[in-house]
Design brief:
alpha+beta; two-stranded antiparallel sheet; 46% helix; globular
């Protein structure tokens, strides 16, 4: 069975005021667990699951990780927030160290207000050549994953009009968006090395593509989704990502390679998903034409239905998608509460009431 794992990034906020809290080191010490990790800023923290084979195992790890980081943050008078951007919370300046300092000096103003958080999904793939071929197959579906996950509508105290302002911020980095089509692993490595040599990437582990090869694990890494508002939505992303990879592997086994898509159309599709989420017009990357986001999500579900059924995940995924349609995306729910109330909505407590059952 194809494996999967999730890394969730959270913002740290003062439990009383909601202001950004640079207490990552205190949280790490309190957690005393290698599933809780540093992120770019001291106001951010990451929680990682282990390698999971089933939806049930992953759901349990997601809830346990959220509960662990919430308890660790409480010892520092803070709460982790499940949102893609800080919104209206103050962003204190802190001196960066190590690799984070190199990143800060390289990108300067681009990272000056960048404390964006994502939900990253790793899916196991046998071999790097196969992994690159999987990237080619899966790329056109990434905007629909983003549309389902948008959870960062606020920035600097204002409603940006976007479902995912995190994606807008991320697009300012070089080499962002959907990765180009590659003929094989050698071509992939050559392109990454060229970007490093050109000085636009700090190192080979820092490509900004929404789906890339992991530099640490035998996986492809989805970096598409905003941090999920609930553990159920994080689980939904993971199950869809695994199903997309499984479907791509089946296509490759049948001798069907992916066709290149227009880079400009791909960029338009990512922008539309970030702008409208599920509420408006999206872009069909393969057909190069506009299409309602809801239709694109339905097409995604139809595409991966055989893979979801193979893993026994089809009923659960339909349940989780229905929950999002009924309750709205994270961005929708934040807007319903307004900026002053949204931060309480996003406080991580583990398996929160109202979270889709996993």
């Amino acid at each position: 069975m194809v494996t999967m794992g999730v890394e969730e990034e959270f913002l740290l906020a003062d439990a009383g005021t909601g202001a950004a809290a640079p207490v990552a080191e205190e949280v790490l010490r309190a957690a005393s667990n290698d599933v809780v990790r540093r992120e770019l800023r001291p106001t951010q923290i990451e929680v990682a699951t282990g390698v999971c084979h089933t939806a049930g195992a992953l759901a349990a790890e997601l809830s346990a990780g959220r509960e662990l980081v919430a308890k660790a943050a409480a010892t520092a008078g803070a709460v982790p927030l499940a949102t893609g951007t800080p919104g209206g919370w103050s962003l204190p300046s802190h001196p960066a160290r190590g690799r984070a300092r190199t990143i800060t000096e390289r990108y300067r103003g681009v990272v000056g207000d960048y404390e964006a958080c994502g939900c990253h999904v790793h899916v196991g793939v046998p071999g790097k050549e196969t992994a690159v071929a999987v990237l080619n197959h899966v790329g056109p579906w990434l905007p629909s994953l983003l549309a389902l996950s948008v959870n960062s509508p606020f920035h600097n105290g204002l409603d940006t009009g976007y479902g995912s302002w995190r994606m807008v911020q991320q697009s300012r980095f070089p080499g962002s968006g959907i990765a180009p089509w590659f003929s094989g692993h050698q071509a992939y490595e050559r392109e990454v090395s060229r970007l490093v040599d050109c000085g636009v990437l700090v190192d080979a582990d820092m490509s900004f593509w929404l789906l890339r090869l992991s530099g640490k694990f035998p996986t492809v890494e989805f970096r598409t989704a905003d941090t999920a508002g609930t553990a159920g939505e994080a689980l939904l992303q993971a199950l869809l990502c695994r199903a997309l990879v499984t479907r791509a592997l089946a296509e490759l086994d049948a001798g069907r390679e992916a066709r290149p898509c227009s880079p400009q159309v791909a960029a338009a599709a990512v922008w539309a998903a970030a702008r409208y989420g599920l509420a408006g017009e999206g872009v069909d990357v393969r057909a190069a034409r506009p299409k309602p986001a809801g239709v694109l999500v339905a097409e995604l579900l139809a595409e991966v239905a055989p893979a979801l059924e193979e893993h026994g995940d089809l009923p659960l995924v339909h349940q989780l998608v229905e929950w999002v349609w009924h309750h709205g995306t994270g961005a929708d729910r934040q807007r319903e509460r307004g900026l002053t109330g949204a931060w309480r909505l996003m406080r991580v407590k583990g398996h929160e009431p109202g979270t889709p059952p996993a």
